[in-house]
Amino acid sequence: MQEKMLIKKEKLNLFEKIGIFLKRIFNKKGQNKTEANIEKKYDKNTVTLDMLRKEQDILNIQTKYENGDIKENDLSSYEKEELIKLYEEQINTLEENICAYRNKLSNYKEKIIKARNNKRS
């Protein structure tokens, strides 16, 4: 007779069996959720990468235009519109930065005036 190897089965109590059962159920559902989350993250990443590529392309066009490598006639209407948007955004950020620096300078000026007035008193 050939001896057959029998697999030893652990004796589990009722709570351990329930725990294993619940882990199996929730792990399957968790896998579906994680796959969906991965797909969402992938979609977000691809959208972000596309946006960054477009911005980089427009910035490259801007530098070429400012260096004189590209003339206005060489640009398509889409590129012109994107360049105009880019310039407007850059102007807005510069104006915001200027306002912030002016506020800082006025605060420093006020501190200096207060310090001078305190020394005189």
Report the end-to-end length measured between terminal Cα atoms. 113 Å
* Largest sheet: number of strands, sense, barrel closure: none
Q: How many runs of DSSP E, i.e. beta strands?
A: 0
Order of SSEs, N→C?
A: HH
Integer-rounded radius of gyration: 33 Å
Number of helices: 2
Determine the fraction of residues in helical runs and give it as a percent range: over 70%
Strand content: under 5%
Specify the overall morphology: flat
**What's the structural domain tally?**
2
Written description of the protein model:
With 121 residues, the chain is mostly helical. The protein has two domains: 14-75, no CATH class; 77-121. Helix content is 81%, strand content 0%. It is built from two helices and no strands. It has helices spanning 14-67, 77-120. Helix 1 packs across helix 2 (77-120). It is flat, with a radius of gyration of 33 Å. The model has no long low-confidence stretch (mean pLDDT 83).
Compact summary:
This protein is mostly helical. It is built from two helices and no strands. α1 packs across α2.
Summary keywords:
121 residues, mainly alpha, 2 domains, 0% strand
Sequence-ordered SSE layout with sheet pairings:
Blueprint: H1 14-67, H2 77-120
